[in-house]
Amino acid sequence: MKAGTRALGIAESYRSETSTLAGAVTRASRVVDGFAFSACTVGGDDATDAMVDLYGRLDREDVRYVLIAGVAPAWYNLVDLHAIHEVTDRPVVAVTFEGSSGLEASLREAFDGDALAWRLDAYEALPPRRSVDAGDDTVFVRSVGVDDDEADEVVRAYTPEGGRPEPLRVARLAARACDDHTG
Q1: Which of 13, 148, 153, 170 could pair with 179 as two cysteines, CB 3.0-4.6 Å apart?
Q2: Domain extents for the chain?
Q3: Is CATH 3.30.2170.10 the right assignment for the domain spanning 6-101+129-182?
């Protein structure tokens, strides 16, 4: 991957009823050259819209990939990866950092009625999750708008060490700093 290829990493931090979403534009060379922020409701259904809004605020045509830390930020505010891909016209790669047997049991414990129904529908619509070796670590990836091999290459190219792609690491730091400042 060329050193100047840019990815937008989106990660969250939350402390109350809202979750801060930070977006960090990071080059494959690890240079950070842009930030944007948005928010979504903890336990809500607006994470996808907030991420699309964040992408739009950046107004960066040079972003080639969108990386998202997880698919259920802000207490199961599930993300529609297909919708983000459709709006941004960019490959979308969701990365998680721990193995799990899935979210369905947790969703059923935490929600019922319509709140559960839409979450189950959103969860079932996600592409399958697969493990990817990134250096000495293993991460778990779902991708839309890109084949598995290219998604794996993107994850590896942006992960210099520590098992967390640099755009997601920087976005998480920015989201936490924003919360520290406002919280």
Answers
A1: 13
A2: 6-101+129-182
A3: yes
